[in-house]
Amino acid sequence: MSEDFQEAWEDLMGIPADPPAMRELCENCRRPKPVCWCAYLPASPLITKCRLVILQHPAEEKRCLRTVPMLSLGLAPGFCLIFKGKKFPHNRHSGLEEIMTAPNSVLLYPSPQSVNLAELPKLPSGGFDSYNLFLLDGTWPQAKAIYHSSPLLHSMRQVKLLSTGTSEYVIRTQPTEGCLSTLETAALALTILEDREDIREILLKPLKALCDFQLDHGAVTHQSKEFLIKTKTYPKLIGKRLNRLLNGVSPNLEELDTDDPAQDQSNF
């Protein structure tokens, strides 16, 4: 046995068998306790007229900085339903098809037939006093894949947000300046449908805390992909479609979402 091999073997034998101690997690949000955002949740979960129905891509559950848990914990039980999958409805999605086909269900998705969400009646007709508001949770490619593989979604009434402002999720790269995280989209939509400005403010408190925690621990503020392309600071090679931006052609979401798997879905 050579001297180098013997030294390497001894080094290996000195490695402890037990795995390193993991940081203690919050039992509520499952975040490490030093960066837990639960203190910023509403003291009493919000009771809203509308019910959120989140169709979540399986890969989204693995993200450590996802925003849907803030919705599920910020809203009262039963007001935020989450179904996971790549195609909806599935046999395992008990009760989902019934909700999807209900006359008071609407899908927030920017299809050609989508109408301005602000134009919906504040209270649906037909004896209902609320909406089931569906959102797709994932990156843009994942959201589009869910939509195209789920024919029942196409038959739903579809709406979109025409005015969104700037995302406060500053630690994630968004496709364009007007794109929002799932949490921000849901909060804005509920604010509009229920004519309650306090909903958005209350639901976004955990997100602001999360961003502050991350920035304090070394994260940096992210500009949108659209901004980086226009300022010629985007770190990746630019394809033909994205190159149109540099020639003055207005961007669209189809062109901005294809090569960045880490971005959050922009939610219309």
TrEMBL record:
Keywords: S-adenosyl-L-methionine, Transferase, tRNA processing. Residues 22-219 form the DTW domain. GO terms for molecular function: tRNA-uridine aminocarboxypropyltransferase activity. This is tRNA-uridine aminocarboxypropyltransferase. Pfam families: DTW. GO terms for biological process: tRNA processing. It catalyses: a uridine in tRNA + S-adenosyl-L-methionine = a 3-[(3S)-3-amino-3-carboxypropyl]uridine in tRNA + S-methyl-5'-thioadenosine + H(+). Its EC number is 2.5.1.25. It is an enzyme of class 2 (transferase). InterPro entries: DTW, DTWD2/TAPT. Belongs to the TDD superfamily. DTWD2 family.
